[in-house]
Give the backbone structure.
Amino acid sequence: MNPSKRSLVFQAALGVALLLTSNAAWAAGRNDDPRGVAVALFAFGIFAFFYGFKILRHKRLIENTPTSRIRSMPQGPVELCGKALRTTPLFTPFSAVPCAYFEYKVEEYRSSGKKSRWVTIRSGNSKDQEFAIEDETGRVRILPQGAEVMIPRDQVFQNGLGSSLPPNAQAFLEGHGLSTTGLLGFGRRLRLTEAFIAEGDPLYVFGTAMPINSAKPREQKQKVMERLRRLKQDPAAMARLDTNHDGVVSADEWERARQAVERDAAEGLAPEQRTIIVRGTAPFIISDKSEKGLLDSLRWKIIGGIYGGPALMAIAAAIFLHHNRT
């Protein structure tokens, strides 16, 4: 089965699992029917089973791909190990730590009758911000959009019970229209979680190396656009583009000029700077663990999915049988 078909199968299984889980939760909430819990367990078991095989494919690909040096890395799927570097002034949202990448989540503690739970009211990440990985041979930029970022949570902040949120966290909430007080002026119980890759942290990346012009990072595109703008304002240069001397720069003549400008913009870069790591057809994984540490964590996810999934489905079936007998 090719990667696109495997992805469709996984997405279909996930969709079925989510649909069954939502229906089960609705039914269980209405009449406390244990079959609702059974359906939820069965649906989650389906998801876990397919997810386990997805992670198994990732693990085998990582094990079979040699680690590349940045200076000599090939185009296409690559595995890199090094340290993280910032390419823009980026800080974590709650603790203001300088970082190369961050994720955050804001949760509110809500009660309804006898039930209480944490509900996510906002979450986000910096996947639209590039950063870099560096080894002893060079550095290359990473655009983490679409990546599976495997990092542990680093900071958790809560208010209430004599504790308050740090000033940076309060400023972040206010800047995003989130109040720490409810409708009647009572304090809202909030939990703020952030995870990040700090500058200099060990970094493992499995992704796709592409020419910088193909990936079109923002600053490269802006550089090309600025050169084209200056070209249009230079009558002598525009005249040179008119290769058939008909007094008009045709679409084909302008396209050749644009391609030449893109090549010139990249010529002054070192070989590794002409490349960027992005999401391609291969898995895109970023982690602050070593390769061995990452493989160990994947191994436990595989065991939990491939063996835990069927176990949950078996428990769900047992609940159904017991309920039908009674």
Summary: Residues 111 and 117 are 7 Å apart (CA to CA).
